[in-house]
Structure formats: C-alpha cells, structure tokens
C-alpha cells in the first residue's frame, strides 16, 4: 500500500521538479486567461521570449534587474539563516542610495577613488539604519519584522525630502531629484555595469562563508536551534548582531549600485520595491545564498516580461496578478516537494482487518 | 510587492507644450550644432550634463530630420504617468492619443500606463525602441530615464511632456497653464470669504510652483489679503492622500481649494464641506456641481496629431514647444454657482492675456518678503517654467 507522507525536509531535485511543474501550470493558466480575453497567446509568448532571453536587449535588461535583486535577496537570506526576517531592505536600500549620492554629489575626484568611498559610505548608512532594530532585537527581544518594516517608510520619505529639498537639482530644476552624479560605475556590456558581476561574487562569497567557515556554521546553528547553540557556547547574540548589520549593508549596496549604475541621481521612489522583492527572492531561494542567483533571475524574468506585456496593453495590475499566481503555484510546489511516497515495511496479510487504534475516553 | 507601475511610492512627475508658441530663438536653426542650441536656451535649461550629451550627439552624424514613414509601417508609442482612466491628466492625454488614432487609422499605436518615475521607465522606453517605434511620446517628465534611451537610439524621435532637455532626437512640450490658473485665481480671490486658499500639491517641482503661485497671484490681484496653504502629497495619483490633504486644508480654514493632482478627489471634499474648488486637467463638474468653479482644461489632440504627422512626413525635429492659452490649455466654462459678475471680471483678464498681456510682472515677493522679480520686469514663459520659490502669502511650498 503506497501512500504519500510529509517529510520535514524536501530534496532539491523534488523541489526543482515541482517548481518546474508550477511554472508550466502558471504559463498554462495565464495563457488560457489571455486566450479567453481574446489575445493571441502565441504571438505574446514569442514577443516575451524575444524581449527577455531571446535578444541582447532583453539579456541586458535581465542583468540590470538581477543586480539589485541578488543583493536585496541576499540581505533577506542571510538573516533567514539565523531565523530572523529583515523586512527593511527597502529602507536600507534608500539609505545606501542616500549615502552614495551624498558622496557622489559632493566629493570631487576620479571615479577610482569616489566609487569605493560611495560603496563604503552606502554600506555604513545601511548598517546605521538597521542598527536600532538590530540592538532592539539582540538586547530587548523586539520583533525585528515590525521595526525594520516601519523604518522603510521613514527612509522613503527621507529620500523624498533630500531629493526635493536640500539636495534638489537646481540646474535642470524640473526633476524632483538631485543633480546628476559625476561618477558612474563603468558599463561593460551594453548598459550592464560592473555592479552585476560584483553582485554575483557577493552571492557566491556569502554562500562560501555560510558553508565553509565556523562563523557560518555558528550562524546556521544559532538559527536552527538557538538553545542548542547557546548550550554549545556559541555567541548567539553577537552572531545575530553581525548578521543583521551585514544584511543592512547588502541592501544598501544595492542602493549604491542603482544610484551609481543606472539612475545616476537620488530620487524619491527609486527603490522600485527592490527591497520588498528581495523577500520574494529569498523565499524562492529557500535560504540558500547561492540559490539567490537563480531566484533573482526568475524574478527578473517576471518583471521584464511584465514590461513587455504592458506595451501590449495589459495593465500593470494584471501583471501583478500574474506575479502573484506564479509565486502561489511555486509555494504550492514547494510544499508538495515535502511529500514522498512511502510503502509500509511490514505488510499486513491481505485478509486481516486493518487495525484501527482504539480511542478510550 | 511591485508591478511596474503598481508600486509603493513611485508614482511621479508629470506635466506638460505648443507649436503656436515657437519662439524663434528656441528653435534649432537647421545645421547648427547642439552647443549653439544650449547657449541659445540660456538660463537654467542648459544643464551641465547637456553639454557632454551635446558632444556625443555631435559625434554621430547629426541628421536634422527623420526619414519619412508610411502610415501603415509606423509605430508610435506613448508612455503615460498614470492610468488612462484617472479622469484627469492621463485621460486628457489619452483623448489626444484617440485623436491620433482617428487621424491615422492605419498606424500602430501602443501605450503603457502608470510608467513609474524610476529605472523601470528606462526599461519601458527601451522596450518601445526594441519593438521598432519611430516615435516615443512620454506624457510626463522622465528626465534622464528618457534621455538615456534617446541618446542610444538616435534614429527614434522622442517627445517629453514637461521635459527640460532638447537633444537631436529629444524634444519637449508643455502647456502654459499658469495663465489659466491666474484667471481662475481672480475668481478665487473674489469668491473666498476667509481669504485662505488651499492647494493640493504633488511634488515641489516647477510646474507645481507655477500653478500654485499663478493662482495666488491672480487672487491677490483682486484681494491682496489672500494667502495660500499648500500640501505636497508626493504623488500625482493618490486619491486617498488628496482627500486627506483637502480635508486638512478645509479644517485649517481654507474655503477655496485648488490643486494639480491627476484626479478629482478634492472636488468631492469641497462639495461635501460646502466650499468651492477649482480643478485641473479636464472639466469635472459632475464630481461636485455646487463646488465646481472652473478647471485648467488641457487638450493635446491637435498637438499630437501635428507631431505624429510631422514624424510621418519626415519633417519632425526636436524642439521645445509651449501650448498656449486657447491653444491646448484654457479655463473651463464657469461653474453653476459662480456669480456672473465674477466670471466676467476673470474673463476680462483672459481677453487681455489673449491680446498679449502678461500678468506676471514685478514687483513679486517670495514668501520671506524679499523682492524676487523687481518692478518693471515681466516673467516670461521660460522663467515661469523654472519657478522654484513660493510667492508672498504661500505656505507649504518653500
């Protein structure tokens, strides 16, 4: 008698298989709905493929989308390894952007000097922004989900204030943004700048640290079983602080790349929800630092496809619904991956009645 | 969550120009290099970043016009700042798009709604180029996000509403809405009892300064004690925030609301609180017939048809263009509760402006009391288009 039983772990190949099935199912449902609304699904599919992975233009866009997504996704993933959720990626992204823009606008010099200073300042700003939630979490047990989330709004408004107030561009005057920053991360392939390979390296480096260093081991144990970690003499609190500050720095670095690589100014709203999308990426990556890269690729594909569909008069809200559908089906697929067929080791004789446990009250 | 456009706080800049107002000095003489143009633009328009752009533009073979396109092969792309159903700004532009569709039934038109003011805008404009658009029209200011794309697609014509940059293939257009605002301001000054006007603003950007300042100056011209309280809601389309801002303004004693949001939310507030309101974008009296005074109404139909026609003929060239009073922007016919004598008085100013009078003349003081426009000096449209300070009596717009 084979039946399906839920296991606490899900092997990677099952997760991958179910996710592939989920994506196919999502594509079929979307295709069916689009066909019912009278659209030429085949033509749309060809256009989406051509504009995303089928052309150099599309590949460049994917890389630009992936750069911040990898970093904000990593920011959430590292905290999830220690059992925490940094929902404040958006705010730390803004602070990174503010720090980078402040340096870029007011520090003269050649890019080779200014860019690293921008990156370091950005990361320090991100660290400072997450410091309060971190200390509150580490010493007072304050839930970091609430504190990091609420600071996002403060950071967003702070950016608006700087961009439309003290740092306002008085040269062109029209944009609610700062002046153009005189240094930029060099581009190496079309519009793709060096932030992309750096983001890949960061994700790879984090994976190596988590897997192969004792620090990474302690982080993982502290996350998996804090009581056991403390009993083993691991400095859990110090690890929590370090991981959260690292997380803030990663999200802030994404902000710096966006300022110095693609936008070249500080603008309100420039985070484009990359901070929040980082959470989605982290969920897709299932707490693996390396899996953040394919997860960011999938998210970038969805976002890029969304832009193509919008030029075909699908409203931005329809695109949001598509994103939600894909993520829902993937979540279902992930859950299904925990189920495996099991066969009872001891077979009952076919004639014997099935033993049911007697419940006594 | 994000959707390109359906974002948390990304809604952004916009605003909007006309050929009838071509000032010769702003038009690029054929064959002249870009740097000549930049110096010709003078004042603040010539951003420092324009000059390197100009040099790049000079490097490539600077073709003055774009090859003619047959109507059936043409693809014209519009990027809108809001949903076309916003009942205001984007609806006004969409009416223009529909006029183009009617005038050129064989050409292909695509549009994207709610293009955010972020790097996503660049992606959307790039997508238009990748799909083979010969002309891309942004119905709002997208600054570098559109210029970066235009610089890399020298064969495609770009037009930006409320833009401030002109390159070989990127031009801008805008409506001179400040005259209509001034006329409505006169009615406001005569109709307010408390002398406090409320302004539902969006971002502290020049188009908002120009609109708010013009209304207040109009009001002060007939009622010197008038003041204005402005609230910036950091969005062009956020009916909820506009409603809250309008309620706060009424609570603080304002009895006449005006603003520059893309939708009619604050008119409903005015109607329910029994005060008056002047709108912007389209005639909107149906949302509050008792409160409705007038509106700065926009009509881009003729302009869009002309521009698309020029592109198809191969005669289009990048230039700054203002749409003038009665040629794309005007005040709406007066509301049912506006006393006829007040309407007549405001319309007298409209006739004078149409005859060439400019009411924006010194002395004009800023809200610290300092004279910013000396007596005898007139603010021309280029200067008003760069307005970044609030006039005396203005609070909330620094």
From TrEMBL, chain A:
The chain crosses the membrane at residues 20-42, 62-84, 91-107, 113-132, 144-163, 194-217, 238-257, 277-302, 314-333. The keyword Transmembrane helix applies. InterPro entries: ABC_transp_permease. It is a multi-pass membrane protein. Its main location: membrane. The keyword Oxidoreductase does not apply. GO terms for cellular component: plasma membrane. GO terms for molecular function: transmembrane transporter activity. Keywords: Cell membrane, Membrane, Transmembrane, Transmembrane helix. It is found in: Cell membrane. It holds the Pfam family BPD_transp_2. This is ABC transporter permease. It comes from Acetobacter oeni.
Automatic annotation (TrEMBL), chain B:
Gene3D superfamilies: 3.40.50.2300. Pfam families: Bmp. InterPro entries: ABC-Purine-Binding, PnrA-like. GO terms for cellular component: plasma membrane. Transmembrane segments: none annotated. Residues 76-316 form the ABC transporter substrate-binding protein PnrA-like domain. Keywords: Signal. It comes from the Bacteria. This is BMP family ABC transporter substrate-binding protein. The lineage of its organism: Bacteria, Pseudomonadati, Pseudomonadota, Alphaproteobacteria, Acetobacterales.
